[in-house]
């Protein structure tokens, strides 16, 4: 029997728990905002927001010149005489796969609060707070239960992965907010059939697309939900009703489709058409910029990252070096996947058709759209945690529904305690760390900076790199380097004579061309941090 929210035995403890969870969640979102590495992607957020382009920066930097590391940070501040048009142009011509909404909001934010790491990360942290009341509203709509809605709010507030996204100067928090908001409006529009609700749904959905291209996964899941719910809800009625018009069952089913949804879809496409045109006109650039996700990986790699991505909603130790060989971590995470599976199963067994279809389509449609290409033609789309954002709200709601149904039983109260303890412990570990698994290319920059800062007269050699990623990573590193560290940024014809004899020479992610030039000088390499930081010794 479903627990009612007005049971006094659960009312006060849950309200207290909600207050504590939200307080902790807010605290974790804003605690040590500037502690973790400001990584490659965040650097490019600030770069685009400030109105710079790589076409402007790279030729200016790589000219066989020695500069202080901090000088790179001028490209993180608003470009003189630039406007919002500069931000749009930078995205449209160099990163068309990143729609402009978050960057334009970021531009306003940077003009008002500056370009420091704390200022840049405060924006997504604040945006993330909007998701808390929204998931409560969605939980009430889906399950008509205060208890389930409260638990879902608690889970999202303390989710380690949501807090990571909230502390990342990227658009992921905004995607979460718009995913939940569009789902709320879809339910309200289907229930009321009000053109105003459909209009709001169209606007919010268009804003989602202007935030991230993968918001389209949410819209596809909405479309499949609406169509399948309509067909399955009406199939039995059509089977048993008298067909006076002598229409086929398929024709009768087609007549029951909510045309308002399709009208709203047309409006969304029209609203998004300007950016669709930009993407089509720059399709080759989009393909080139996203080539890394099409690189073939092993099936084991995919499975490991699926386990890690979905379990990180409730538990998240730093899984940078995770492997199935580490049975302890794997089994620990598997426990949380079992709880998630139980939640989805309970929704399927106990909820009405519309609710279970919504939960299933919200989780599995985005996931399968990413998984199938990876399995068929190779790639790692489904292994990228941030691409799975569309799936996450429905998972919080499923687990909340499971626990809400059985919270009167001691065993399930223990499960709730385990979930909350794991989340709080994970967030605490992350809060005091200077890097984490989501820092990608820049994961090792904190370690690199410590080694360079420990030297008296270090000079760091680098060039644009074989895959043109060194600019963003060097700017990321510059935030961590002390004043005595100098950079020698080399052109395609590197001039190594500029290196003073008394300097301690290090090389950062050298291209093959730079490696050959160094070897030609008969200098010897010593690896300090993989291939990212090498020490050079003159013979």
Radius of gyration: 26 Å
> Alpha-carbon distance between the termini?
79 Å
Number of helices: 23
Q: Percent range for helical residues?
A: 55-70%
Query: How would you sum up the global shape?
Result: globular
Report the sheet-strand fraction.
Answer: 5-15%
For this entry, give a set of tags.
539 residues, mainly alpha, six-stranded mixed sheet, disordered N terminus
Characterise this structure.
The chain contains 23 helices and 6 strands. It has helices at 8-30, 40-49, 54-61, 84-94, 101-113, 117-129, 131-143, 146-158, 160-166, 172-192, 195-209, 215-240, 249-255, 259-281, 283-289, 299-311, 327-350, 353-377, 392-406, 410-431, 445-453, 470-478, 512-520; strands at 65-68, 458-462, 486-489, 504-508, 524-529, 533-537. It has a 6-stranded mixed β-sheet with strand order 1-3-2-4-6-5, with helices on both faces. Helix 17 (327-350) packs across helix 18 (353-377) and helix 18 packs across helix 19.
How do the strands and helices of this protein lay out in sequence?
Blueprint: H1 8-30, H2 40-49, H3 54-61, E1 65-68, H4 84-94, H5 101-113, H6 117-129, H7 131-143, H8 146-158, H9 160-166, H10 172-192, H11 195-209, H12 215-240, H13 249-255, H14 259-281, H15 283-289, H16 299-311, H17 327-350, H18 353-377, H19 392-406, H20 410-431, H21 445-453, E2 458-462, H22 470-478, E3 486-489, E4 504-508, H23 512-520, E5 524-529, E6 533-537
Helix pairs in contact: 1-8, 2-5, 2-22, 6-9, 6-10, 7-8, 7-10, 8-19, 10-11, 11-14, 12-13, 12-18, 16-17, 17-18, 17-19, 18-19, 21-22
């Amino acid at each position: 029997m479903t627990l009612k929210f007005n049971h006094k035995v659960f009312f006060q403890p849950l309200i207290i728990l909600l207050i504590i969870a939200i307080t902790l969640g807010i605290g974790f979102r804003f605690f040590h905002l500037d502690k973790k590495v400001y990584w490659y992607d965040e650097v490019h957020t600030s770069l685009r927001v400030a109105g710079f382009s790589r076409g402007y920066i790279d030729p200016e930097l790589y000219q066989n010149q020695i500069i202080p590391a901090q000088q790179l940070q001028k490209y993180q501040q608003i470009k003189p005489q630039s406007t919002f048009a500069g931000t749009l142009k930078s995205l449209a011509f160099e990163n068309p796969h990143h729609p402009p909404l978050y960057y334009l909001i970021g531009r306003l934010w940077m003009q008002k609060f500056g370009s420091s790491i704390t200022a840049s990360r405060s924006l997504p942290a604040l945006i993330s707070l909007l998701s808390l009341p929204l998931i409560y509203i969605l939980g009430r709509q889906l399950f008509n239960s205060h208890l389930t809605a409260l638990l879902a709010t608690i889970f999202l507030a303390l989710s380690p992965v949501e807090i990571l996204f909230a502390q990342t100067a990227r658009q992921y928090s905004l995607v979460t907010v718009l995913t939940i908001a569009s789902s709320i409006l879809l339910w309200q529009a289907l229930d009321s059939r009000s053109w105003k609700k459909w209009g709001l749904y169209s606007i919010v959905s268009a804003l989602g697309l202007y935030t991230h291209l993968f918001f389209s996964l949410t819209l596809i899941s909405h479309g499949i939900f609406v169509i399948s719910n309509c067909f399955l809800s009406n199939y039995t009625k059509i089977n048993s009703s008298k067909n006076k018009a002598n229409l086929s069952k398929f024709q009768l089913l087609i007549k029951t489709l909510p045309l308002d949804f399709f009208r709203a879809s047309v409006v969304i496409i029209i609203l998004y058409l300007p950016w669709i045109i930009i993407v089509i006109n720059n399709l080759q650039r989009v393909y080139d910029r996203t080539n890394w996700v099409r690189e073939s990986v092993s099936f084991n790699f995919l499975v490991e990252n699926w386990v890690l991505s979905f379990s990180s909603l409730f538990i998240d130790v730093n899984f940078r070096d995770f492997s199935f060989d580490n049975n302890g971590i794997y089994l620990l995470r598997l426990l949380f996947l079992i709880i998630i599976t139980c939640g989805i199963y309970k929704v399927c067994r106990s909820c009405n058709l519309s609710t279970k279809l919504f939960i299933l389509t919200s989780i599995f449609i985005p996931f399968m759209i990413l998984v199938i290409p990876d399995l068929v033609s190779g790639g790692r789309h489904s292994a990228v945690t941030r691409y799975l954002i569309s799936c996450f709200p429905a998972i919080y709601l499923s687990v909340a529904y499971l626990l809400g149904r059985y919270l009167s039983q001691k065993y399930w109260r223990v499960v709730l305690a385990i979930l909350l303890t794991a989340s709080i412990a994970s967030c605490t570990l992350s809060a005091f760390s200077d890097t984490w698994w989501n820092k990608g290319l820049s994961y090792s920059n904190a370690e690199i900076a410590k080694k360079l800062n420990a030297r008296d007269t270090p000079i760091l050699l680098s060039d644009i790199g074989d895959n043109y990623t060194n600019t963003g990573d060097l700017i990321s590193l510059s935030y961590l380097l002390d004043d005595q560290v100098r950079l020698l940024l080399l052109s395609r014809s590197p001039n190594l004579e500029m290196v003073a004899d008394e300097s301690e020479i290090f090389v950062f992610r050298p291209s093959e061309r730079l490696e050959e030039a160094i070897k030609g000088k008969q200098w010897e390499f010593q690896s300090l941090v993989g291939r990212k930081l090498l020490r050079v010794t003159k013979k």
